[in-house]
Each structure stands twice: as structure tokens, then as C-alpha cells.
């Protein structure tokens, strides 16, 4: 059993200046939209400033001091990512602009080269659109078949159906490690083993996993893992695709341009080695450097402690919201089976109205389909309201959410 220790939340909150501000209605902000994007601590903001103030230059191509420093800072973060996800080699870490770009890189770089008509790609009904649409695009251009592991009513995946769906024609399995819409934690290692037994390649969308619990890409049994910096305290516009070296070496680049070539003549070009092969053009150097500070921050806290805190807050939120008249909570019943996400609806009140009234109480949640329309279709609702937590959220903030929901009920003459 891993030992965890309670987070010092007031100390953590002091690192996030934005949490001290009031919102338009003059009330203090209660930020519960972390599944969409997290906030940034002063350490990350300072690192961005320091980079642009003291080191800024383009990387990999300069002989002058600033370029050497920028390159070292940028490449240093590759090693930080490697350690954070327990990857075998830093060269297997590709910087992208986010999870969406990472999944598209696999679909176009690996999929277009190694998939052909009749091959099957298996995904699930609870995927974010960014793990559905690229595969549909590939299906339409290559004639592959796309199959979906269905969701059970409690928001978990139907593993019996998965065992039937993953078969000898499955060439690729791409699943989320945690649903952004419902919080359901997916048994990725188990699915991965099923796919591996068929010789399929396994892609994991870890956009909601990497920020909230320890991530060990080797333990997952995956071939590719994608996630975004902005959901884990880092800058926007930075993401990671980790891939096993032999697959990265075999696949094609997705974008052509500067930095990704070995040689260019008027007739043809040859590719640079991994990872440069996949990082065409000037990357988000400052963003990557800032992401390094975010990884340092999370590592200092300890990802087991992050998970323990969120489990505690989520368990409290599930119990507290269940007491609010008219609330229906979607997703797994037990906090242990979900990340820090609670999706719900308030009887007879549209989630957008709920979101707007909550904002007048300073409570920031998300209302909508959460880029997971198939989940909404399965639940037979147009949208849900979603509260999502991170290291700086407190029980008091959950109480503020619950009491704002009670006020919403009173305002709309809803359940009481
Ligand atoms: N996958 C999941 C599970 C997500 O929650 C998100 C963002 O909400 C994404 C993919 C897409 O991430 P990004 O917009 O950073 O590319």
C-alpha cells in the first residue's frame, strides 16, 4: 500500500493567485471546472516569465548562448516528462500542442501507414470527441471499421462486450483512461491485455488521468499515451504523445517542415530521428518550459497524494449533492471508481441555466455535452452540469456548490 499524506490546501491555494479573485457578481471565485482546464500556480507563471525574460531564443539550430540555454531548458522537460510517466526513454516523449494533436498524430502517422480496408479500430462510447473524430475520418478515407465498447448505465464500460469486440481483426484499440464527462475510471491495463493478445496497438487518452493520479505508461501496457499540459497546471498549447520507440521509428511524420528533416533536396527529403521527426516547425518552447515547472510542482506534492485528496473531495461531493433536492448524479456510484468529476442534472432546470445561476454565486462549473455527445445520447440527456476538482479545492467549496444549487431550486421553483 502506498502511503499518502494530506495536502496542505491553504498553502497550495496561496500559490494560485486567481483563486483569490472575485467574479463579476462581486463574490469570491469557486473554481470547479478543472476537467476543462486547471489553474496555474505562481511557480509556472514565474517560469514562463523567466524564460522569456532571460533565455528566449529558437532551439536546436543556434550556436549562440541563448539558443543553447533554450534548447537545454526545452530538452530538460522531455526528461521530466519521461520520469513523470515512467517511460523507458526521453526520446519517446513527443511534444505536441495537446491531447487532440497527439491522437491525430497517431491516427495520421501510424494509422494511415499501417491500417487498411477491413481492419478494425476499437474505441468506446465514453470517449471525448478528440478520440472519436480522428478515427471516423480515417474510417471514411481508408475503409476501416470503427467499433465502440458500449457504456453501462453507471458510466463504466461493458467489459463483457469488450471481450467480444476485441478480436483477430482488431488492429488498434484507443480508449480513455478516465471519462471527462462522467469521471469513470477505465480498466485500461485489462483492455490493453485483451488487445495485445490479438496483436493490436493500444492508444490511451490520458488527458484526465495524467493530471490526477500516478501515470506509469509501462504498467498500462500501452503503445501510445496522450495528454495535455493545461489540465495539469501547465500552459495551454502544449501536449505530449509518448510512444514505444519501435512504433515511433516505424511510423510516418504527420507534418513536414523545419527541424524534422535530415536532408532536403529539390527531389526529396529524409527524416530526422525520433523525436524531431514529429516536431516540425518552432514548437511552443516557452510553454514546454512552463510545463516543466508544473511537473515539478505536481511531483513535489506527489501524485498519490493528489489522488487521495481528490478521492476525499469527490466522496464528500457525491454525498453532499445527493442531499440536494432534485439532483440526479450520473456516473459510477462509488468515488473510488471515478476521478474528481461529478456530472449531474437538476430536475426540470436546464444545465445551462444551472451554470448561469451558479456563476452568480461565484461557482464556476461546466454545462453542456463536454465534447462527449455519445455519452449524452446514452444517458438520454442533452447536456449535464459538471463539477470537477483539483488539488486546491476544499469541502467548503463543495458546500458552496450545494448551497448555490439549493438557491437555484428556489429561484426556478424546482425541487425542495
Ligand atoms: N480527451 C479527454 C478525455 C479530455 O478531457 C480532453 C479535453 O477536455 C481531450 C481529450 C482534449 O484535450 P485538448 O483539448 O487539450 O487537446
Give a quick precis of the structure.
This protein is of the alpha/beta class and 416 residues long. Helix content is 40%, strand content 16%.
What does the secondary structure layout of this molecule look like, with pairings?
Layout: H1 9-14, E1 30-31, H2 42-55, H3 65-85, E2 93-96, H4 99-114, E3 120-124, H5 133-142, E4 145-149, H6 159-165, E5 170-176, H7 188-197, E6 201-205, H8 217-220, E7 224-228, E8 239-243, H9 245-250, E9 261-264, E10 269-271, H10 285-301, H11 303-322, E11 327-330, E12 341-346, H12 351-360, E13 363-364, E14 366-368, H13 373-379, E15 384-388, H14 395-412
Parallel strand pairs: 1-13, 3-4, 3-5, 5-6, 6-7
Antiparallel strand pairs: 2-8, 7-8, 9-10, 11-12, 12-15, 14-15
The chain binds pyridoxal-5'-phosphate.
The site of pyridoxal-5'-phosphate (PLP) has 13 residues, from helix 4.
Head-to-tail CA distance between termini: 43 Å
Calculate Rg over CA atoms: 22 Å
* Physical arrangement of strands within the biggest beta sheet: 2-8-7-6-5-3-4
Biggest sheet architecture: 7 strands, mixed
Helix content: 25-40%
What would you call the structural class? alpha/beta
Write down how many β-strands occur, each being a DSSP E stretch of 2 or more residues: 15
**Ions and ligands:** pyridoxal-5'-phosphate
Amino acid at each position: 500500500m502506498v502511503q499518502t499524506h494530506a495536502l496542505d490546501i491553504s498553502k497550495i491555494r496561496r500559490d494560485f493567485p486567481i483563486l483569490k479573485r472575485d467574479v463579476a457578481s462581486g463574490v469570491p471565485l469557486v473554481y470547479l471546472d478543472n476537467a476543462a482546464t486547471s489553474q496555474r500556480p505562481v511557480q509556472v507563471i514565474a517560469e514562463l516569465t523567466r524564460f522569456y525574460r532571460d533565455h528566449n531564443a529558437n532551439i536546436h539550430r543556434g550556436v549562440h548562448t541563448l539558443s543553447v540555454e533554450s534548447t537545454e531548458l526545452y530538452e530538460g522537460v522531455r526528461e521530466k516528462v519521461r520520469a513523470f510517466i515512467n517511460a523507458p526513454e526521453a526520446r519517446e516523449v513527443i511534444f505536441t500542442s495537446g491531447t487532440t494533436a497527439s491522437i491525430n498524430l497517431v491516427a495520421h502517422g501510424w494509422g494511415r501507414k499501417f491500417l487498411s480496408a477491413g481492419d478494425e479500430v476499437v474505441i468506446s462510447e465514453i470517449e471525448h470527441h478528440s478520440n472519436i473524430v480522428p478515427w471516423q475520418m480515417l474510417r471514411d478515407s481508408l475503409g476501416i471499421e470503427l467499433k465502440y465498447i458500449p457504456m453501462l448505465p453507471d458510466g463504466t464500460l461493458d467489459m463483457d462486450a469488450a471481450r467480444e469486440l476485441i478480436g483477430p481483426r482488431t488492429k488498434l484499440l484507443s480508449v480513455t483512461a478516465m471519462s471527462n464527462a462522467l469521471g469513470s475510471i477505465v480498466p485500461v491495463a485489462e483492455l490493453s491485455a485483451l488487445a495485445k493478445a490479438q496483436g493490436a496497438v493500444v492508444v490511451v487518452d490520458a488527458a484526465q488521468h495524467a493530471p490526477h493520479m500516478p501515470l506509469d505508461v509501462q504498467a498500462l501496457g500501452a503503445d501510445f499515451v496522450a495528454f495535455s499540459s493545461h489540465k495539469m497546471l501547465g500552459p495551454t498549447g502544449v501536449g505530449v504523445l509518448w510512444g514505444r520507440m519501435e512504433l515511433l521509428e516505424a511510423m510516418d511524420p504527420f507534418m513536414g517542415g523545419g527541424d524534422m528533416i535530415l536532408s532536403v533536396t529539390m527531389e526529396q527529403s529524409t527524416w530526422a530521428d525520433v523525436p524531431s521527426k514529429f516536431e516540425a516547425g518552432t514548437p511552443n518552447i516557452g510553454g514546454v518550459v512552463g510545463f516543466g515547472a508544473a511537473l515539478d510542482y505536481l511531483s513535489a506534492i506527489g501524485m498519490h497524494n493528489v489522488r487521495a485528496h481528490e478521492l476525499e473531495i469527490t466522496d464528500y461531493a457525491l454525498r453532499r449533492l445527493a442531499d440536494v433536492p432534485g439532483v440526479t448524479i450520473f456516473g459510477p456510484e462509488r468515488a473510488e471508481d471515478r476521478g474528481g468529476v461529478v456530472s449531474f442534472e437538476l430536475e426540470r432546470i436546464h444545465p445551462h441555466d444551472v451554470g448561469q445561476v451558479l456563476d452568480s454565486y461565484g461557482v464556476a462549473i461546466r454545462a453542456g455535452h463536454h465534447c462527449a455527445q455519445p455519452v449524452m445520447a446514452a444517458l438520454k440527456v442533452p447536456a449535464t452540469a459538471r463539477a470537477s476538482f483539483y488539488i486546491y479545492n476544499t469541502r467548503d467549496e463543495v458546500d458552496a456548490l450545494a448551497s448555490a444549487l439549493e438557491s437555484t431550486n428556489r429561484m426556478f421553483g424546482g425541487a425542495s
